[in-house]
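Below is how a single chain appears once it has passed through the pipeline. First comes the sequence as given, then the structure the pipeline wrote out for it. We keep one example in the README because the format questions we get most often are answered faster by looking than by reading.
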Amino acid sequence: MPILPIVVIVDVDPDWRIFGAAGAPQKGEMRWEGLRRGVPNLLRLVEGLRDSRGGSVRFTWMLRSDAQIEMAYGDPAHVADEFADFWDAREALGDEIGWHPHTWRYSESGQFWFQENRDVDWVTSLLKDGHSALSRRFTIRVAKTGWTYHDNTTMKTFAELGVKIDFSALPGMRYRGVIPGTDHPLGQYDWSRAPQEPYHPRVDDYQMPGNGHALPILEVPNWTFPTGILRRLSHSLRGGRSWREFADPAKNPRLVGQGFRNPPYSVPFVCYFHPEETIGPPWIFNAVHVAQNLRLLLRSCERRGIQSHFVAGSELAANFR
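Resulting structure:
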């Protein structure tokens, strides 16, 4: 009977979608209601879920530590200290703490934040500073980039910093967003050529396996799946969206249920969501959806003769050398 490792990742970002928030991340507003209110409710909702071995849901919490957080609070790893008791409690229960750096950069002329992906030296310095700050609190084995963005330089930097596993890849997906009315990047990424299987990236191509000439870091892709007809239409109207979807457990099962009903046999099931998604907007995102989708996944595994196994992110290192 095949065993399916299940990695549930939480990108610990501030809120911007919820009622009363800016609704525009480039404004740089910092609220953490998703983490303060939504996540405790989520944890209660998933208490009874068990995998094939009787194990409970384990989360891999990817904490922000970067220049934007430093500018707002004076410390790149502020979130680690602000919620220190919570992280301690979660680690004691078998969860893992990882790193989630964003390359937000402030435009003085435009008075907004944007995704810096052109100034290589600035991005490299940001990553080193953010990793250093968070590493003083936790041993960082796993990471996931903001916007899932990588290029050859950022992947190499992650490897040089000692990150063992990266969970950024969205196989078959890419996006080229910009700040409205400008040419400044926002939410850009490209994983259109990445495989679904875990791989060690080539030095000169972060999307491709190295096959003997590779970085030591392991890229473990998120589980992605084809969108339905209605979703394809929606993606076409929004422009630039791929005809694939990643498995966001906080999203309404009517939108992503296909991904949880049809889990893979031979690659890990990696999914992720954000704390703010646990509190809305409820017709799309909700903590209840996390429990519903994970329950759907467990039942699907049982029906298909697959052993489900909740694991922390770094535990996959033993399975993929």
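The radius of gyration is 18 Å.

See the next section for the split statistics.
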